[in-house]
Amino acid sequence: MPRVRESAAVARGMVRAALDSWRLACLVDSVTLIVTELVANAAQHARVSETHLHGGTIRVTVSRIEPDRVRVAVVDLDTTELILGVAVTDDEEHGRGLALVDALSVKWGVDALGWGKRVWAEVDAG
């Protein structure tokens, strides 16, 4: 999908549909919030690679990795390393997205792909 903030709405719909079909509606709030943050981060921070024709796109996936656990991921074509742990003050409007992902997920991480990266988070119903 396009690497724009508006793609978060499409990603939320995809996540909702998957969780409903897996009868994991209890995870909808957490996973849709996580995917919103991951898409927003990719849209705001990922640099478009000049060597890739589709640098302005992202891929969003949601997978059921255990009966009560799902993994949501956003892949972009930016090879720049993700910067973690930037402290923000109470009056700043941005900068809390990955802290929110950390708080809502069982675990999360970043996979370097050589041509880009995958930022993912796992959420458990148990």
- Proportion of residues in extended strands: 15-25%
The strands making up the biggest β-sheet line up spatially as 1-2-4-3
Q: What is the second-level CATH architecture? A: 2-Layer Sandwich
Number of discrete helical segments? 3
Task: Provide the number of structural domains.
Answer: 1
> What is the helix/strand order?
HHEEHEE
**Gyration radius, rounded:** 14 Å
The biggest sheet, with number of strands, parallel, antiparallel or mixed sense and barrel status, is:
4 strands, antiparallel
- Secondary-structure content class: alpha+beta
Please state the overall shape, judged from the principal axes of the Cα atoms. Answer: globular
- Going by CATH, the homologous superfamily would be Histidine kinase-like ATPase, C-terminal domain
* Count of individual beta strands: 4
CATH C-level category: Alpha Beta
Query: What is the residue-averaged pLDDT?
Result: 85
Distance between the termini: 31 Å
**What proportion of the residues is helical, as a percent range?**
25-40%
Describe the structure.
This protein is globular. It contains 3 helices and 4 strands; from the N terminus they run ααββαββ. It has helices at 7-21, 28-45, 97-104, and strands at residues 58-66, 69-76, 107-112, 117-124. The chain is α+β, with helices and mostly antiparallel strands and 126 residues long. It has a single domain, classed as Heat Shock Protein 90 (2-Layer Sandwich). It has a 4-stranded antiparallel beta sheet with strand order 1-2-4-3, with helices on one face.
